[in-house]
Design brief:
Layout lengths: L11 H12 L5 E2 L4 E5 L5 E5 L3 E3 L4 E5 L8 H13 L5 E4 L1 H11 L19
Parallel strand pairs: 5-6
Antiparallel strand pairs: 1-4, 2-3, 4-5
Length: about 120
């Protein structure tokens, strides 16, 4: 497993989630794959999606979002589009409420405390 200091996480909640995975010995990779979502007529990638984590033993991608529910539309659309284009890919979106529940249950910092209204920068790409 990678050490937390070897990776530059995009958002503090990702580092806390990785810390939780390490604590439980769950193998993970950080942003290991980019999935093209839309292409131009000439084949250029116009938009893509890189889920935050991949859990190889579960064959599961995890995307975290700390945005408020009403700002989640872009992230939800990306996850749905990924599922349409890549139906064999397993992905789970953990939202602000899910992460807050994990923070309470496992006593790590509340991800919303370090959040901005816009989420992290990649949310708008």
């Amino acid at each position: 497993m990678p050490t937390l200091d070897e990776i530059t996480f995009q958002h503090p909640s990702e580092k806390e989630f990785a810390r939780l995975l390490n604590f439980y010995g769950i193998r993970w990779e950080y942003e290991p794959r980019v999935f093209p979502l839309t292409r131009a007529a000439d084949g250029r990638v116009l938009s893509a999606f890189a889920p935050d984590f991949y859990l190889p033993d579960q064959d599961l991608y995890i995307e975290l979002t700390t945005q408020s529910t009403r700002l989640n539309n872009l992230k939800n659309r990306k996850v749905r589009r990924l599922q349409e284009l890549y139906p064999t890919i397993n992905i789970k979106l953990l939202n602000r409420r899910d992460l807050r529940g994990l923070a309470i249950k496992y006593a790590f910092p509340d991800p919303a405390a370090s959040n901005t209204a816009e989420g992290h920068p990649r949310d708008h790409a």
